[in-house]
Amino acid sequence: MDVPSEMKALMLVGDGYSRTPSGSALEAMGPYVQLGVITVPAPGQSQALIKVDLASINPSDVAFIRGQYGQPRVKGQPAGFEGVGIVVASGEEPYPKSLVGKRVAFATGVSNWGSWAEYAVAEAVACIPLLDTVRDEDGAAMIVNPLTALAMFDIVKQEGEKAFIMTAGASQLCKLISGLAREEGFRPIVTVRRDEQIALLKEIGAAHVLNEKAPDFKATLREVIKAEQPRIFLDAVTGPLASAIFDAMPKRSRWIVYGRLDPDTTVIREPGQLIFQHKRIEGFWLSEWMRQFRDRRGPAIMEAQKRFSDGRWSTDVTAIVPLAEAIGRVPAELTKPNGKVFIRP
Amino acid sequence: MDVPSEMKALMLVGDGYSRTPSGSALEAMGPYVQLGVITVPAPGQSQALIKVDLASINPSDVAFIRGQYGQPRVKGQPAGFEGVGIVVASGEEPYPKSLVGKRVAFATGVSNWGSWAEYAVAEAVACIPLLDTVRDEDGAAMIVNPLTALAMFDIVKQEGEKAFIMTAGASQLCKLISGLAREEGFRPIVTVRRDEQIALLKEIGAAHVLNEKAPDFKATLREVIKAEQPRIFLDAVTGPLASAIFDAMPKRSRWIVYGRLDPDTTVIREPGQLIFQHKRIEGFWLSEWMRQFRDRRGPAIMEAQKRFSDGRWSTDVTAIVPLAEAIGRVPAELTKPNGKVFIRP
User: Fold this and answer.
1) CA A286 from centre of chain
2) Does residue B181 share a domain with residue B97?
3) Which of A4, A240, A328, B105 fits B128 for a cystine, CB–CB 3.0-4.6 Å?
């Protein structure tokens, strides 16, 4: 296929990590990425070059461009962890070669050639050939959220208790998990920051939706925890909210951190609970899960595609912003609740 | 055997838990226990009544009498979690009956009849018939420290890394673990609060002894961790010291809390480490370990007795204080380093 020598991309302004903690809201794109023209990369032996049709913006992208994600930035390289597109070139290995011409969902991982660009590079094993029945919007957001949802709900199911807790309940990820939970008779307890999110989340599958800003939040939280006895806490927030939730949870509870939306200090309120109540605190990262549980990756991928194909899952779209308009428009689009913002190169 | 109807005991002043956090030093006994006379209890079906020869004072006893341990106090009942003595009466079950007349190490657990008294009640399964070759001082301090040492060192061995970290390095427990570690070629990194503890701990088996009060402590800590790559952190302290140590530890490290000597706030400095470095935070409690690993309890008990019999282990004795003098003398004796304080009823 014809591949040009240069491409437009949103390139990282900063290098490495930032020492300044900040909140989850992206006040502006300009300090972190700039639109420019860069040479189209050549894929390595095990990699694929993808012509990007649609790239997603996840909370992890926002943290990453600000230098607050678990991977260092490389200045001048395109940002963007996932997207959908057509494989137009590949390395010499058989599997990457077999992908050429196919539409794939992809995660750029540590390739340093992100999806917020006309072309992106991903490891072939991080490319998922898509069924025709999967929409671009769903393919572009298939890896970071849906696979994480399936993996984290698997943890809930293994624990066995029907009730579990999630912060950032209105996120796309938590909505996916709530839906899975409802299907199998589990009871998600989720926190949100706006009353208008409550009805929708209950409809999707949340058993309880608690507004963390409500004056009676802590009392309600304790009541709900007492009644439901949740043991798994899937936490995207950390900080004082998460500390309070973990403190109120019963014996043998597990606080599983997968995000850090609140830059505030995270306190273990009662370390004695770790000793005498056998509670523990750990993390979740999709890459680690895929490394540790290779046999579950394939079935999870197929499950995600089936769900998007038959309409059980559908990604809510807030906006699809052209690459050239991203810097100006994305921050405002991200403030809108209940949906995902995409970039179209 | 002749058992009187009444006995002297150090009885709890407070009830339940205390909400006031405090440090590890015991400024006085009077606010927490009072000497008095109480009816000698009758053992239940599965229990043994022990004429106490010697009772130990552990950090957990100090925390308990102040209402800051993981079990609620019952006002008016005798304190004291462990001791040594002769079984003088028992419940009707065969195993308790078989113990009558025997010298045992015992842990009072949740019997509410502690060892700081002329007679104590323990579950028969928490009574260990002693070899004649085990001294009373070693028997009186056999369960809380030696069994914990064997259990926690087992966790270190399972992890596989030769180096590991312990706070409160000068405690009897850490000394026992350091000795076990040296025998098997492991490298304990321990923290202390006094320079004069350093030489002794190195002699016992610590590979590195760091004074947490030293001005270059944090720099030294990072250097040692970088060189040794410890993955297990056995922590009796929590608070800022423990937070700093865990923060500096490498990928896949486990912070295992078993004590709470510092009442200061315990912070997870970088929750992102839980996600991207797969670190985790958990607790250790001997009762839970014995519950989860029943098959390891017997061999650990035999190992402890052998070590005390052949002199590989020996409990350092700071003082043996008569019951009647305990309230006046114990606080001062507890401030002396490097040994254990006992109460003789």
Assistant:
1) 9
2) no
3) B105
